[in-house]
Amino acid sequence: MHTYAAEHIVASIAGALQFVSHHHPPDFVAALQRAYRAESQPAARDALLQLLVNSKLAARAARPVCQDTGVAHVYFELGMDARIDGGGATPTPQALADRAVARAYTDRANPLRASMVRDPLGRRANTRDNTPAIVHSELVEGDGLRITVVAKGGGGDAKTRYAMLTPSDSVADWVAAQLPGMGAGWCPPAVLGVGVGGTPEQAMLAAKRALFAPIDIEQLRARGPRDAQERLRLELYERINATGIGAQGLGGDTTVLDVKVAALPSHAALLPVAMVPNCAATRYVAFEQPENGPAVFTPPDASLWDGVPDALPPTGTPVDLDTLTPGQVAGWRAGQQLLLSGRLLTARDAAHKRLADLLRHGAPLPVDLRGRALYYVGPVDAVGDEAVGPAGPTTATRMDKFMPALLERTGLLVTIGKAERGPQAIEAIRRAGAAYLSAVGGAAYLVARAVRSARVVAFADLGMEAIYEFEVRDMPVTVAVDAQGECAHHRIAIRPG
Q1: Which end of the chain is flanked by fewer CB atoms within 10 Å, N or C?
Q2: From CA 317, how far away is CA 277, in angstroms rounded?
């Protein structure tokens, strides 16, 4: 019988969360490299390069690849002959995981952004240490302890899909039909997990767990499928990439890096199907817990990033945000690349809600938005000489409902986020002669290197959702919606799958 000390388990999970915050799985980096080399579309190729540079720099600096450092998922596979020694009462897997998450996310050398909130229907108060963890425990044969630790960002989970099909329905048709409507908020390209069969909750869990397996689609394509699951993987991989959605939804050759399918026995009359995407901030590690101490996580060799530069080439039209005029904005065109320098403000969901409430009551705003640029971001805390921690964009559509009032009543000129905008926001942008710019989701450390200074200017109590003023230099963005209402994302040729 193996005995595992509770403190060693906690240290292993905390170490794993720290490690995956700044290290992509090597197979994911290799798949990005292949996609970059094969990409034929300039916008998608640039986005893939940003993701690769970000991956290299984040690993080197041991700082998060993405500002959304994820909800902590911990999967325990505990042997029935194993024992956990807590020095007294045996702690539950949930208690062990929560201790580890609190330790990892408040680490002073590499603090991670806390995203978990309590009271989801009420105050939605941030727990401040990213607890509780999402824990799944399974008893298995033997006396070992295998743990899979995952940091899952909100962008991927937000695009989760589920349906109860009938046995005669095509799973491939249903999955392929979901992709165009998912938009780009899940930061493609990444891996897509599909769970088929079981019960509804089993299908969803199977889809998510399928994501945490090595990328091997190229090997599968080379040898050919051996069963129905592998045939479905290949069909979906080809059909989804044929849509032309591409990296960040900007149009390109690679939308998914792999498709994983998990199939479970189900009721004869039912066919539950669930779909969960990962994102460009793919972060997980699986390990066997040692009996004599914490697990050790060794970084991959630097050759993994061979050929990836240390910085982006300065491509794009320079823009001075401090002297920006409506006339300049009117001259931008959808798909154009820009390099932003100067001062911009930040705001996410909670700050937008407060701004909207102040406007509705006729109260003054704490910041003047006239002629300004507003960046949708909740950054990681800074360490050392950083102006700000990793500060990549959040999904813009969550702020769509606030756009008409902000643009009409404040003189706001530019917004910056990730992925596409909805019809309401696009029409508001067109009427105001404003613009929406897209930054690459999943390239947060790279974006943060463009930030020269940062200070909180309003709503400090909101923590990472406070309004900051950033001073940036050569921040790379793409014009996603121009002043005429033309959209870079909507110009993608969505071909039938």
Answers
A1: N
A2: 33
What whole-number distance in Å separates Cα of residue 107 and Cα of residue 112?
7
What Rg do the C-alpha atoms of the chain give, in angstroms?
Answer: 23
CA 464 – CA 306 distance, rounded (Å): 34
Determine whether 352 is an active site residue. Answer: yes
Residue 495 — pLDDT band, cuts 50, 70, 90? Answer: very low
Answer yes or no: do 325 and 252 share one domain. Answer: no
Global model pTM greater than 0.90 = yes
Count the Cβ atoms, other than its own, within 10 Å of residue 411.
15
Whether 357 and 481 map to the same domain: the answer is yes
Residue of 215, 249, 246, 282 whose CA lies nearest to 30: 215
Q: Domain containing 377: what range?
A: 317-491
Instruction: Compute the distance between CA of residue 338 and CA of residue 373 in angstroms, rounded to an integer.
Output: 13
The answer to whether residue 70 sits within a structural domain is no
How confident is the model over 269-308, as pLDDT tens digits? 999 999 999 999 999 999 999 999 999 999 999 999 999 9
Distance CA 434, CA 480 (A): 11
Cα separation, 100 vs 113, whole angstroms: 15
Q: Quick one: pLDDT at residue 490?
A: 63
* Residues forming a β-bridge with 319: 340
Tokens matching residue 245:
């959605």
CATH number of the domain that residue 170 is part of = 3.30.1330
Handedness of CA 317, 322, 325, 326 (dihedral sign): positive
Number of structural domains found in the chain? 2
Enter the tokens of residue 79.
Answer: 């042997």
Element (H, E) at 163: strand 161-165
Nearest to 59 by CA among 299, 285, 286, 283: 299
Catalytic residue among 23, 24, 73, 352: 352
Do residue 236 and residue 340 come from a single domain?
no
